[in-house]
Write a structure and sequence with these properties.
The complex is a heterodimer of chains A (114) and B (113). Chain A is mainly beta and 114 residues long. Chain A has strands spanning 5-7, 10-13, 19-24, 31-38, 42-50, 53-56, 65-71, 74-79, 88-95, 104-105, 109-113. In chain A, the strands form two sheets. In chain A, strands 2, 4, 5, 6, 9, 10 and 11 form a seven-stranded mixed beta sheet that branches. The chains are: A mainly beta (114), B mainly beta (113). At the A-B interface, strand 4, strand 5, strand 9 and strand 10 of A face strand 4, strand 5, strand 9 and strand 10 of B.
C-alpha cells in the first residue's frame, strides 16, 4: 500500500512568493493533519481535517497560511506571501477513522524561503 | 504554551544499556499517548502507544510507562542498539470527541557502539 505522499520534497523560493505544498493521504483514512517541524517548537500542529472538513486550525500561524481539502484524496497547504521564518519541514499525516491511534506521516516537504 | 514537553533535547547511551526518554504533559484531558521515532530526511514513524487506562505497555525492547498523577510518561529501550539512534517524539491526544495530536519538541538519542 502506498503511504502518505507529499510533494514537493524540497522547495526553495524567494520571500514574497506563493508556496503550495501537496498531500495525498492513505486511502480510507478520514483524518488528515498538517504539521511543521522546527528546531525550537518540534512538531507543531497547524490544522487537521476530518472527512475533508477543517476541524481545528488554531495552529495556523497567520493569515498568510491556508489549507484546503477538496476531496478525500488531496490536501494543500498554501503560504502567500512566504517569509524566511516559514522555512521548516512540513509534514502531512493521516489516520484511521476509528478514533485515536497511529498517525501515518509522509516524508515531508522541506521549505527554504530566501 | 507547550502542552507536551520533552525537556532533554539529547541523550547519549552506550550500546546494550538502557535508554530512558521522558515526556511531561500539562493537559489532564489527554488520555492517549504515543511515541514516534524519526530518522533524518524521513517522516516520523509510530513506535508504541499507551492508553490512560494502563500504566505500562511493552513491545519487544520498547516499554512505555505512564504516571497519570505526575502527568509523566517515559520510554525505555532495552537493550539500546546503534540503529535506535534517532529523534524521539512523544505525542498526546484526548478521546473526548477530538483526535488532535500534540507533539513534544523531541529528544535526539545517540547510541554509541
Amino acid at each position: 500500500d502506498a503511504g502518505v505522499i507529499q510533494s514537493p520534497r524540497h522547495e526553495v523560493t524567494e520571500m514574497g512568493q506563493e508556496v503550495t505544498l501537496r498531500c495525498k493521504p492513505i486511502s480510507g483514512h478520514d483524518y488528515l493533519f498538517w504539521y511543521r517541524q522546527t528546531m525550537m517548537r518540534g512538531l507543531e500542529l497547524l490544522i487537521y481535517f476530518n472527512n475533508n472538513v477543517p476541524i481545528d486550525d488554531s495552529g495556523m500561524p497567520e493569515d498568510r497560511f491556508s489549507a484546503k481539502m477538496p476531496n478525500a484524496s488531496f490536501s494543500t497547504l498554501k503560504i502567500q506571501p512566504s517569509e524566511p521564518r516559514d522555512s521548516a519541514v512540513y509534514f502531512c499525516a493521516s489516520s484511521y477513522p476509528t478514533g485515536p491511534g497511529e498517525l501515518f506521516f509522509g516524508e515531508g516537504s522541506r521549505l527554504t524561503v530566501l | 504554551d507547550q502542552q507536551v514537553k520533552q525537556n532533554s533535547p539529547s541523550l547519549s547511551v552506550q550500546e546494550g544499556r538502557i535508554s530512558i526518554l521522558n515526556c511531561d504533559y500539562t493537559n489532564s484531558m489527554f488520555d492517549y499517548f504515543l511515541w514516534y521515532k524519526k530518522y533524518p530526511a524521513e517522516g516520523p514513524t509510530f513506535l508504541i502507544s499507551i492508553s490512560s487506562i494502563k500504566d505500562k505497555n511493552e513491545d519487544g525492547r520498547f516499554t512505555v510507562f505512564l504516571n497519570k498523577s505526575a502527568k509523566h510518561l517515559s520510554l525505555h529501550i532495552v537493550p539500546s542498539q546503534p540503529g535506535d539512534s534517532a529523534v524521539y517524539f512523544c505525542a498526546a491526544s484526548g478521546t473526548s470527541g477530538t483526535y488532535k495530536y500534540i507533539f513534544g519538541t523531541g529528544t535526539r538519542l545517540k547510541v554509541l557502539a
